[in-house]
Design a protein that fits this description.
There is one protein chain. The chain is mainly alpha-helical. The chain is built from six helices and five strands, in the order αβααββαββαα. β4 and β5 form a beta hairpin. α2 packs across α3.
């Protein structure tokens, strides 16, 4: 498909489907199918008509070239022709396998494609291994954080139990002090004569 001069200059003027199909040397039906498949960018003018940028011709040309390359890379058997070539000097015949240049180029293209696919596969494997390692590292860090959180929770629970014990001890001490205060209050409210008569005189050592 030959590109017009404007297309070579990166023109992007909008074209109708039929005009675009004429430049692409194909049918408007195929262009509409490519649009439905999302393989061509389109715009809509003020009248609501579908228009295709002329620069999309390069997309079709690239797809065409890719199809040609993929077709040449199909794993078809390569037929060789065997010829017996005679050396004029010694008169002997030497057998040689002659492969057509076109098939040789196709084989080289296929080999390059396979090598690129292998390189891409190796890169994907390396990225996958790196992601796996990162995931393992994050998992290990999360486990360590969980262990540390568990230890802190146990320490906090132990400290809470100690505080509860201290509160219980303080409560008992407060109750004892309150009882002593109540007894002192009652003793203070007694009449003076009860304090005198109820008081036990100290024992005399001579009487004993």
């Amino acid at each position: 498909m030959a590109l017009p001069e404007e297309q070579k200059g990166h023109s992007s003027r909008p074209l109708s489907i039929r005009a675009f199909a004429d430049l692409a040397e194909t049918s408007p039906r195929r262009i509409r199918r490519l649009i439905r498949q999302g393989r061509l960018r389109t715009t809509t003018n003020s009248a609501g008509e579908t228009r295709i940028p002329e620069s999309e011709l390069s997309r079709l040309e690239a797809e065409k070239q890719n199809r040609i390359i993929k077709h040449s890379m199909e794993l078809t058997p390569v037929n060789t022709s065997i010829e017996l070539n005679m050396d004029d000097e010694d008169g002997e015949y030497h057998g040689g396998a002659i492969v057509s240049l076109q098939r040789h180029e196709a084989a080289m293209v296929r080999l390059g494609y396979i090598e690129s696919e292998l390189a891409a596969t190796r890169r994907l494997l390396q990225e996958s291994a790196q992601r796996q390692k990162d995931l393992e590292d994050r998992t290990e860090e999360a486990e360590q954080d969980a262990v540390a959180a568990t230890v802190r929770a146990v320490e906090a629970e132990t400290a809470l139990e100690e505080m509860r014990s201290q509160v219980i001890d303080s409560t008992f001490k407060a109750m004892e002090l309150q009882k002593e205060v109540e007894e002192l209050r009652q003793e203070a409210h007694k009449p003076w004569w009860k304090k005198i008569f109820n008081s036990t005189p100290p024992k005399n050592d001579s009487e004993s």
